[in-house]
């Protein structure tokens, strides 16, 4: 099958000293993939003539489409545009349309006077097709050479995204007869990557050439992604769906979701669909679980609040954990997290509550309760379940693992609980 | 001056379909830079033999050091290791040291039985030096060819970081006569990058060739980093220190810290040195501020707890915000955050309290209070100060900006307060 390959080249010193994390490439890869274009390589180079030139030569070699981002800002202008001019054999000319747009932006939107640098932004190589950048002053530029296409875009994320969506993708869809690419992702928990692979070995071998399986392990969860590529959408959809169903059935016992979701998104769906509310009582995670839940838009619908009871006195005052329990059992104990859940349910008045208490390290461990020991409790007015964990990593990772595993325990509890109330 | 160049190659289809954002490369670039190694290119390719092989050829061309991450998990084993074997002309052999470590991990840490796949992780090319991966089963592998060095590392971030810090960087420092690179960083707040640049233009021009100045704007703060490169450590140290002192004096009024610290580390130092305690009352940041503070080891010394009052009823019940205030002023108001501070001081009994309430988006905005509107209050038993902010980004960024600016207001309050009590 004839596949259309794209390379993404990102220009900027900031990427090479690690000052900036490249989120543009990931977003571009997603939309290109959706469009049926296979991204074969991503390359980042500095703001340097030779480095950019060599990258262009190399990627023009291997790809049909080259997407170039960065190097177009008012302070970075000096290299990329002249280089593209020379590379495609043209000269810089003032583009009246772009100039009008830049003038408009400064007069009507920025309310700032234009300076020489801004006018220079309206200069484009006379050998490219100008792509209108509705969100900024630097236009996109479309070049063609030896039946290859190169598109130069500004690096500012929302400017790049606007150009990709409105101009680049539609133009590419016209230009190429592209295959359909379909993805289906599920997430498992509580089973290691290698065991999972062992369990679905035969399934994996049974996959047709058009469908690929990928493992993406993360925080004790493993995401499994099926990718199908072809030209017959219906046929392909049927094929991937039947394989995906097969996979789900095989992994029912460890399946968390059949969507490409984070654990907190799974929780959000469960709470929303059941019209239930949640409160958190966090000791060792120090608010991280509440943060994960509230980082999602609309979370105020189901997350009412939380208490970060870092100090034992706060556990007593705000969650009514008894001094006796703290004295006899300790702050990191089943009895304490049970009382924390009860306290949270009482003070925040929610359907469910989740509580965690543990030792994240590097200090605070003992022989009896080593660093990484965590007690989790989740419950409602009728029942509370608990689980003990032992994580063996450094502080930040222990916090992340505690959060994801606590949310997973909550997930199971909500599901069991919903089922039992239905029956 | 002879510079040592590195290329970073990241292997994984997930990067090419944009399912995962590559944070590894940025981190690696940072530590390589600190070590005096210049990262010249970053390349991402899929889990495909030819793609990896070609990338190796290309980067071996242009760089002295190639760092390869990914493609080493128990399920991905099948390509990278055999390829490296063939590329460097060796064969796979079982490494007893690695096998012992893998066995240990399964018996003592994972408490899971080992299977064939896991044992395969202990197979390494006989032409490489094995680097011990304390955090996982996939070892690092160090190859040398034509006076070039290639290091293969697992893609799991904390495994890669552990290997880089403990094994790779020290070995590279031994191998190459790298220049001394000294960095001195200070952080400013409340002044834009361009104004800052204007203010220190002459200072910047006065810098010797051996010292570079970098602007690292981030969340309304700007980090200024002086980097001195050379071979005479003493001379270089003297030069950068005198310039750094000069810079600090010029920026005294906007200086937050003369260390390369996060805002929460600055707060931690202030609280620790003054033997003071802190409580948080968060609405719109949903526990993120408490998380930032508690992510640091030893934070229980000064952070006693927090209340995430996402729902208005929680603001009333746990922070004693009056229904009248919520009705007349609204949850996002100066009056509300003032009462939140009072409530937090009362219920958590700390020296200082911080409160935030705002609209993080995408929904919930109004003409009067658009998305991004935030009220922050900080105070102690004697005084409360407030500040209104307006952020214009998407939800996650607005949350981060709120946190850092709230902590900065707290920082100023603690300093003013400490001074006034000393006088």
What is shown here, in short?
Chains A, B: InterPro entries: CinA (IPR050101), CinA-like_C (IPR036653), CinA_C (IPR008136), CinA_KH (IPR041424), Competence-induced_CinA (IPR008135), MoaB/Mog-like_dom_sf (IPR036425), MoaB/Mog_dom (IPR001453). Chains A, B: Residues 7-175 form the MoaB/Mog domain. The structure is a homodimer of 423-residue chains. The first copy, chain A, has 16 helices and 17 strands.
Which CATH-level-2 architecture of the largest domain in chain A? 3-Layer(aba) Sandwich
Shape of chain A: globular
Task: Calculate Rg of chain A over CA atoms.
Answer: 27 Å
Low-confidence stretches of chain A: none
Mean pLDDT of chain A: 91
- Number of contiguous helices of chain A: 16
What is the helix content of chain A?
40-55%
CATH level 1 name of the largest domain in chain A: Alpha Beta
Strand content of chain A: 15-25%
First-last Cα distance of chain A: 51 Å
Instruction: Give the class of chain A from helix and strand content and strand pairing.
Output: alpha/beta
Spatial ordering of strands, largest sheet of chain A: 2-1-3-8-7-6
Strand runs of chain A, count: 17
Largest sheet of chain A: 6 strands, mixed
What is the number of independent domains of chain A? 3
What kind of assembly state do the chains in view correspond to?
A: homodimer
Which chains have the largest interface?
A-B, 89 and 87 residues
CATH-assigned fold name of the largest domain in chain A: Molybdenum Cofactor Biosythetic Enzyme, Chain A
**CATH homology group of the largest domain in chain A:** MoaB/Mog-like domain
Pfam families (chains A, B): CinA, CinA_KH, MoCF_biosynth
Family (chains A, B): Belongs to the CinA family.
Protein name (chains A, B): CinA-like protein
Domain MoaB/Mog (chains A, B): 7-175
């Amino acid at each position: 099958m004839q596949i259309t390959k794209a390379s993404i080249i990102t220009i900027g010193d900031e990427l090479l000293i690690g000052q900036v994390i490249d989120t543009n490439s990931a977003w571009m890869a997603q939309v290109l993939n959706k469009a049926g274009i296979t991204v074969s390589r991503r390359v980042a180079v500095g703001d340097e003539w030779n480095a950019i030139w060599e990258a262009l030569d190399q990627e023009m070699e291997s790809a049909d489409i080259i997407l170039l981002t960065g190097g177009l800002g008012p302070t970075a202008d000096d290299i990329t545009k002249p280089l593209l001019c020379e590379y495609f054999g043209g000269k810089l000319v003032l583009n009246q349309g772009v100039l009008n747009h830049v003038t408009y932006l400064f007069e009507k939107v920025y309310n700032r006077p234009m300076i020489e640098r801004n006018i220079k932004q309206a200069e484009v190589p006379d050998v490219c097709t100008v792509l209108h950048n509705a969100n900024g002053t630097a236009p996109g530029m479309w070049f063609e050479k030896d039946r290859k296409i190169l598109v130069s875009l500004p690096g500012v994320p929302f400017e790049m995204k606007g150009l990709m969506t409105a101009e680049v993708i539609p133009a590419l869809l016209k230009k190429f007869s592209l295959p359909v690419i379909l993805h289906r992702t599920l997430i498992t928990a509580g089973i290691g990557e290698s065991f999972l692979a062992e369990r679905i070995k035969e399934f994996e071998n049974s996959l047709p050439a058009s469908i690929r399986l990928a493992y993406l392990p993360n925080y004790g969860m493993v995401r499994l992604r099926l990718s199908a590529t072809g030209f017959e959408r219906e046929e392909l959809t049927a094929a991937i769906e039947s394989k995906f169903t097969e996979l789900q059935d095989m992994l029912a016992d460890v399946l968390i979701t059949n969507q490409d979701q984070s654990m907190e998104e799974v929780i959000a769906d469960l709470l929303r669909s059941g019209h239930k509310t949640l409160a958190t009582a966090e000791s060792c995670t120090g608010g991280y679980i509440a943060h994960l839940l509230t980082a999602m838009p609309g979370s105020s619908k189901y997350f009412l609040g939380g208490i970060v009871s870092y100090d034992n006195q706060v556990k007593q005052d705000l969650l009514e954990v008894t001094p006796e329990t703290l004295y006899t059992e300790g702050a990191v104990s089943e009895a304490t997290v049970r009382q924390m859940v009860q306290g949270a349910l009482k003070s925040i008045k929610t359907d469910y509550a989740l509580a965690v208490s543990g030792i994240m390290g590097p200090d605070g461990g003992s022989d009896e309760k080593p660093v990484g020991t965590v007690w989790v409790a989740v419950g409602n007015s009728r029942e509370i379940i608990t689980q003990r964990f032992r994580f063996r990593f450094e502080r930040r990772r222990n916090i992340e693992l505690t959060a994801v595993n606590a949310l997973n325990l909550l997930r199971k509890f909500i599901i069991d609980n919903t089922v039992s109330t239905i029956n």
